[in-house]
Amino acid sequence: MLQVSGLGVAKIRQIHDALDIDSLPELEAAARDGRLARLPRFGAKTAENVLKGIAFLRQASEFKLSHHAAEEAETLRAALERLPGVTCAVIGGEVRRRCELVKELIVVLVAEAQPADLFKRMAQLPGVYEFGGHDERQVTLRFAGGSSAQVVVTTPVNAGEYWSRPPAAMPT
Q1: In whole numbers, what is the pLDDT of the chain averaged over residues?
Q2: What percent of the chain lies above the pLDDT cut of 90?
């Protein structure tokens, strides 16, 4: 929360003590529903500035360096691969292509289970803050830290020969 412009240690302590808020998503919710504006030495203008600061942080953190994105993607891939019904999880997109700057993480799941069932399980994973933008085969996960990922679910038949190989057998 110290990264939000206009919030110092004293204001963050006041927010924490009065509203028991520990994270940016909780702070954003409090600014939107008016709880933040009702605090002493705050107001509607401060709440609006906090929302702008959070939006700026999200925009500024959209791009990640390749090695940071690869670590995040691998952690997510490993977690998703352990879901029941998932045969294989593969990192795709800009991380797979080893782009220097990565805007979006993409993980492709090869699964025997129905995508709707997998989406329900994904929404309950630790750290998942928002879950949405899904159609029948794709979903966007947003995490408490502000990062997000696209998860695409396909069947083994549609995965193609390359995607159906176990990750250890894939070429580097």
Answers
A1: 83
A2: 35
